[in-house]
Amino acid sequence: MNFIDQTSTYLEIVDWGVTDYQLAFDRQLEMVQSRLNQQRSDTLIFVEHPPTVTLGRRATQTDLHFPVEVFSARGITLQKINRGGLATAHEPGQLVVYPIVQLKKKDLRWFANQFLNAVVELLADYDVNGYLKEGEPGVWVDGRKICSFGIALKKWVSSHGIALNINNTLETFDMIIPCGRPNEIVTSLSRELKRPVNMAEAKVRFRKHFCAAFAYYEKY
User: Fold this and answer.
1) β-sheet bridge partners, residue 97
2) What CATH number is associated with residue 76?
3) What would the pLDDT profile of 77-102 be if each residue is shown by its tens digit?
4) Least crowded by CB within 10 Å, which of 142, 159, 184, 199?
5) Is residue 2 part of a domain?
6) Which whole-number Å values give the CA distances from 41 to 79, 111, 113, 159, 197, in the listed order?
């Protein structure tokens, strides 16, 4: 059995492309256990999901605008998951980032702020002013939510992460109450810029900001 040096500051970067949400969820659980067993280094996962609505531990039917049958008829998967929070949506063209990392500080607020500020730095690269709200997970642009955030921890190893709207249509968000806020307006980077965004470029930019935020070196 190969063990990873706990003092390592290397971060492995992987890209799963478009992957079914349940499959990605199962992979995350396996990777968390491997990290706990010191069998792998900290890992940053990029992925996109087919249309999916995820329901956190506090979510109920009241977070949906339509009966379950309507989601199924429209090809949208409903998925209950183990992160905190309520309902959010995933669509192709959205940048989903899952860090499977051992928190360097046992401080969830610190981790969340560092993570979300990496999103703010990414938006700044496109001359878009993103910001955080005290006590509310996510990133906003001029009052519109552009990034959702939800984390699960197991013995201080993280899973789940962010869903940053880049080029997605946002249609799935119209079917839910995003994060329990019926008046929430959702936006995307392409909508703010009024043009499509190169996803590969956005990934490169984000991983650099994430590595800077947590003092990592990238490893492929």
Assistant:
1) 46, 162
2) 3.30.930.10
3) 887 876 666 788 899 999 999 999 99
4) 142
5) no
6) 28, 18, 22, 14, 31
Query: Which residue is associated with the tokens 């087919």?
Result: 50
Neighbour-count burial for 109-145, b at 16+ CB within 10 Å, e otherwise? eebbebbbbbbbbbbeeeebebebeeeebbbbbeeeb
- Residue 193 contacts by C-beta under 8 Å, 6 or more apart in sequence? 126, 128
Counting the structural domains of the chain, the total is 1
Give the CA distances from residue 172 to residues 45, 85, 140, in Å, rounded to whole numbers and listed in that order. 23, 18, 18
| pLDDT band per the 50, 70, 90 thresholds, residue 1 | very low
The residues that are catalytic are 179
Is 11 within a domain? no
Query: Is the Cβ–Cβ distance between 12 and 41 less than 8 Å?
Result: yes
Alpha helices in the chain (DSSP H): 21-36, 68-73, 108-125, 189-193, 199-214
Q: Which domain holds residue 181?
A: 17-219
Beta strands across the sheet bearing 77-80: 77-80, 52-55, 87-90
Q: Which residue has the tokens 């999901």?
A: 49
Note whether residue 163 is domain-resident: yes
The per-residue pLDDT for range 104-119, each reduced to its tens digit, is 899 999 999 999 999 9
* Helix (H), strand (E), coil (C) string for 103-137: CCCCCHHHHHHHHHHHHHHHHHHCCCCCEEECCEE
10 lies in some domain: no
